Batch of 4 targets.
Target 1
Amino acid sequence: MVPAMPRIIHLAGFPGSGRTSWCLSQARQVLESEQRVVWISTQATDPQRFAQVMLGLHPQHAARFHSYPAGEEFSNALLMVSNLIPQLPSTRLVVIEDWSDDKGAPQRILRENLKTLLSIISQGGIDLILTTLAYEDASGNGDADAMRVRSRSWFEEQGFETWRLEHIESKPGRRLLVTPDERAEWKLNDAGIGAV
């Protein structure tokens, strides 16, 4: 079952958990509905994975995917996209891939620029997915839930709903999508990632 998506999601996961594939799958659905996707990341999306997920998508729809590989200018990319979105009225989804508070600018400036973007998208009814790397709890307290989510409380204060994408060790290629309301099993495939 596919969980109902809130307007803004903070999706955390360990490396290789399928965060990019999940976001590309969401992007494809938006593109198929003839709306735009704006994608911000430090580097270009893996072209092979992008091609796999977008295979068969009409070129006219694929042209509505706007990618901004920002490198060390992540903070400036947030402002640029904030200024661009009002010029692209059919924008439906913004993806910020691999957010980190150390993207080449002081944390305060990055967060202020993200708040500016949040203000713009809330006015336009645009969804936002922001991904972060999770980290493992090394406290040794025996917590069964060893995944820790970076800046979780700050993002939730901004209105984000925190979701996690976790490996299922006993089922290769399967992931567990954990939302505040449910846990759903997903499967990685050539088309991205889909509900089981």
Target 2
Amino acid sequence: MSASKVVPCIARSPSAAATPTYYNNQATFNAAIGTSKTDDDSNPGYVFIQNNAQMSAVFNETDYETTGFQNLNIVNGGFYCAGCNGSFKLIFTTTSVGTPAGVEAVGPTIPVHNMGVPYFAYITFGDNTTANIALPAAGSFWGVSAPERITSIHMGLSGGGATTSGSFGIDNLTIAQSKAVCGNGNAARMDGNGRRRGSVTDYVS
């Protein structure tokens, strides 16, 4: 069942460049976000195959664009894929929890990922900077937040490349506002390669 989470939003000061935080633990991600929407791909409006416009309209939050195959969005077995061996782009500029610049946090589970053809998240932030992040193996959670907002994420080959190879799918896609970083800023900031600034730690766990 699709779910909504509402938490009071606290404003924070803008930054000059994207300062993302990456997550590999869903509980930690959930604790860091505010108002959110989660699509668990169980909506009866989904069918086995739908075009981009139909896929985007069912939950009516994230806009989907398949980039390997054309207009081939599949919801099957309780998860989403584009083929299921194709790349796709998630666009966050028309959601109810963001602005035209995007959302402050995104986090899906990854039920399918054939590491023989590794998929990457090519992220475009609201300040037009980008990051290219290797996605984890099947059975993992992956998330990103940024005060500059996340405009879109392309999931495919490194650098935003399209593909019709491999096998990849997502589920439980959460989009959200994020809580303000308070006190000493315990929500550590990461660089574009998924490394904590000033540390060898890869992710906030």
Target 3
Amino acid sequence: MTRRADFNAEDWSTVVNGPLYAGMRVISADRGGRLRETAAMGRVYQEARERHGESELLDELIKSPPSIDLDQLRVAGGDIAALASRQLREASRIIEAKATASEIEDYKRFVWTVAQAVAHAHKEGGFLGVGGKPVSDAENQALDEISAALGDPRPAGNDPLAPKAPVRASSENCSPVRSSASPRGG
């Protein structure tokens, strides 16, 4: 088992900040919904706290408050996308060097869960909640960048850590709606 004591302060900070950078990358992808998206990030951390004991490394990670290094953000010219990718690659490198295979998977899945929760927290586009997309194209691009930086952490199958996706209606479970302009027989 890998513990916080196995990391130096700088490496631990990089690992702890990984989920925050992933969430901020998705939040910065599109305008609107920042409050809901930030709250969604907090809920993922809260749910992880409630599952205390499943992963000692994650237990210690969520006890450590993450932060964004404003100096690094300035050096990156305010480009959160580039900074997030760099931070996530570095966090992955550190985790892969120190943790067990299962802890590596747990960490990457947690980061991915944060990013997914943020992406699904706010419907993009539409008007007054009608229409729009659950995840915008820009958010999907951000998710692709996060996935690439982490080495594709997307869980296969039924993952209990994955955020709950909204149920979408399909033609199989909805009856057709007739338009008033449709001709009626008879």
Target 4
Amino acid sequence: MAAKRVVIENPILNSPFFEPSRHFRFSEDGITDEIVENRRISQYFIPIAPPKKKGVKQLSFETEWTADRIEENKFIMGETLLKKTGAANLFMVFGEPDVEIKPRKDGQIEVSVRGVDVYDPTTGEIRSHGTDDIACWFIDTDYNGESFFVRQACFTGADEPYEKLRRALRAEIDEAAWAALSATKSYPFDPPKTGKIAVKVINHYGDEVMKVYPL
């Protein structure tokens, strides 16, 4: 039996100036004129595969906009995919490095990185990560407030970063030189003339955060 055709006289439910708060419900027969009092979650319709047998008529999209073909967009609705794997993160809202700044007796300064704190938009909580989750971190020891200049670079993290770098470059790397760069503590440096330093941290997924520290 053919599905009942629904005529929606006024399809506009929401104001263009505010967040959507209502939507029309889809059923097994297609769209209905029933109004649901909340915002529709991000979804898409599963495409109809072409017929495998010759002579079989392709199904028409006109009759297939039904609830059984709706799939939740897991890349937007972060309660599922984004929550399970770090590699699935589409973006980082904001965060900041967890560092310790120590003045030395000789007047120079040392910076130690202890991890990175990241805001999780799916839960509204702050996630704290240790140095194993940091791929590299950089210091601008004389930050001018406009451009970040890498004056010191360090590479940390677990999961054999040295071996990964060696395979990526397809070359042998001086292990002593690498060991000097693989550190959570900076080399001593003079106090900045600008009165500020900046620390940038990048995790294994390419997300980066930066914070400026006045000294």
